[in-house]
Write a structure and sequence with these properties.
It is built from 19 helices and 20 strands. By secondary structure, it is of the alpha/beta class.
Length: 552
């Protein structure tokens, strides 16, 4: 690289440029090495010749916040030298780098002895300070990835369409013959048989400055080139049913992502890379929860992705069926069967093993458990087509309990243990009841696993309850089950205000006119869910639309 091509030094005359060149020392750094520490005094600055640096800050909890990435031609550390201050941020190598180092004493000599150096330096510093004040902090974005396995070209194509970004796929011997037919939206760089590991690091430093993301297709076997690619990658992704041992050696801090071959798995992985994973929270609400079926119908019809479902009580009941792969027609048929099962006149559809006397609940729940096991096909959470989390409450400790492993029917039995209708479920050493007591709209359990949260809540707010004047005017008091569910709903309305937190899109089916115990209103509830979801379509499209990065 010609020093005059560095913007900071573009205004130097020949004499000043020669003086600068004589004082520079070329240093080489491996990926992950720390160049500067925040708070330390600076005794030198650097100019990036090749590779890439990452500027980051560390919180008190150890969490890392990326401030920016620095590419070839940019200086780093010059402000501390000029102003005599401590380093303001940490800097580490994100792609193997070559840096020119300029010591503080040499910097001062140049600044004092050459007017063109001082003028050029001051102008560029002012531009950089102004740009930094306007530039938002970056998210934790994975720009450089190594991928091996089956379906690489499809994954990269999905990623390009999801993000709208400039993406290059660099074949390092990992593309099969069928994978080389890449969509034109992606730039494909064919395998270069003469490419050396050292040249790869240099080339990556150039490509990362030209494209938003660089993805390297590596072979499943270990060689010098594939090792170098794995070393440089921020994340290593394997698209196989089995893991490759040598690859995992190079993955740092959980940066090995494994995607077994499955229907929709490649697109789901693309959303993970893009930080566009979608989580759906389905609220409690007893019969009102049937409206979630209408919401799901609209989401499915519009082709909106769902990468994880979290459900409480009725939300877990219906969301769980959808998560294991049941069609919405099957879920609706299940909901229609609840009219008979929820009726005391029918003996709860033969599922009522009555407690006499009812010490903890009216129904023991043993028959209910067997019925749930049949409907959920004896599946474990690990077998769900869509990852699933179900919320229950420890009635002794008042704690939230999240089911995401083991038999799904156990989690559903726990989250649907409505007191005093059912005995608490004794599972995993705890007495568990309906999760609505602690987390009626379970968005909080999604936050660490997805990037976009859609919530469907059928719980009427205090204001919405004012619309139920029909009951008041009728002069009729609701039956015991309606009173029980009504009490629960009032409590849940208060919990939501303090528990739900940030939601990207909130869908609220209008079901407050009906009783939460009325399982005969299937059509009305589903229609309400569809109507509310249709109103939210534009908002959902807004959060899902591609967001290409703006040039810095």
């Amino acid at each position: 690289m010609d020093l005059r091509s560095v913007l900071l030094f573009s205004g130097l005359d020949d004499v000043a440029l020669a003086a600068l060149r004589s004082r520079l020392t070329l240093r080489r750094y491996r990926k992950g090495e720390i160049i500067m520490r925040a708070g330390a005094y600076g005794d030198s600055m650097f100019i990036i010749r090749s590779g890439q640096l990452q500027v980051f800050a560390e919180g008190k909890d150890g969490a890392t916040t990326i401030i920016t990435h620095l590419s070839p031609g940019l200086p780093v550390g010059e402000q501390a030298l000029l102003l005599g201050e401590r380093r303001s941020a940490n800097v580490r190598v994100s792609i193997e780098a070559e840096l020119w180092e300029l010591k503080k004493r040499d910097f001062e000599d140049l600044f004092i002895g050459y007017s063109s150096f001082a003028l050029s330096f001051s102008r560029e510093l002012a531009r950089r300070i102004n740009r930094t004040t306007r530039q938002p902090k970056e998210q934790e974005i994975t720009n450089l990835l190594a991928i091996l396995g089956t379906g690489i070209s499809q994954l990269v194509t999905d990623l390009a369409y999801i993000t709208g970004e400039r993406i290059i796929l660099l074949d390092l011997g990992g593309l099969s013959a069928g994978d080389r037919d890449v969509d034109p939206i992606v730039t494909l760089s064919q395998m270069d048989p003469n490419l050396t590991p050292e040249a790869l690091a240099t080339r990556l430093g150039v490509l990362i400055n030209q494209y938003d993301r660089v993805l390297m297709a590596i072979p499943p076997y270990e060689n010098a080139l594939s090792r170098k690619a794995a070393e440089q990658a921020e994340v290593i992704i394997e698209l196989n049913n089995r893991s490759t041992p040598w690859v995992k050696r190079f993955a740092r801090d959980g940066r090995y992502w494994h995607q077994p071959l499955s229907n929709g798995g490649l697109t789901r992985m693309a959303r993970r890379i893009a930080r566009r994973r979608v989580g759906l929270a389905l609220s409690s609400g007893s019969a009102w929860s049937i409206a979630h079926i209408g919401v799901l119908r609209v989401l499915e019809r519009e082709g909106f992705p769902i990468d994880m479902i979290a459900g409480t009580s009725g939300g877990g009941l219906f969301g769980g069926l959808y998560a294991i792969g049941k069609s919405l027609d099957e879920v609706e048929a299940f909901a229609r069967s609840l009219a008979r099962i929820s009726s005391p006149r029918s003996g709860f559809g033969g599922l009522a093993d009555i407690n006499i006397p009812p010490r903890h609940g009216l129904v023991k729940g043993h028959k209910l458990m067997k019925w749930l096991e049949q409907n959920y096909e004896h599946k474990d959470f690990s077998e769900a087509v869509i990852p699933l989390k179900v919320i229950a409450c420890d009635v002794i400790l008042g704690e939230e309990v999240v089911f995401d492993s083991g038999p799904i029917a156990e989690g559903i039995r726990a989250t649907f243990s409505i007191v005093p209708l059912f005995d608490p479920a004794y599972l995993r050493g705890r007495w568990l009841i309906d999760g609505a007591a602690v987390n009626p709209v379970p968005t909080s359990v999604l936050r660490d696993h997805v990037d976009i949260i859609i919530a469907s809540s059928v719980i009427a707010s205090i204001e919405e309850r004012q619309s139920r004047k029909v009951l008041i005017e009728s002069g009729k008091l609701p039956n015991i089950f309606a009173l029980m569910f009504g009490k629960e709903g009032i409590m849940e309305s208060g919990i939501i205000q303090s528990k739900m937190g940030h939601v990207d899109v909130l869908i609220q089916p209008d079901v407050a006119l009906y009783e939460a115990s009325d399982f005969s209103r299937i059509d009305e509830f589903i229609a309400a869910g569809e109507e509310a979801a249709e109103k939210a379509i534009a908002s959902i499209k807004g959060v899902l639309q591609p967001q290409p990065r703006s040039p810095v």
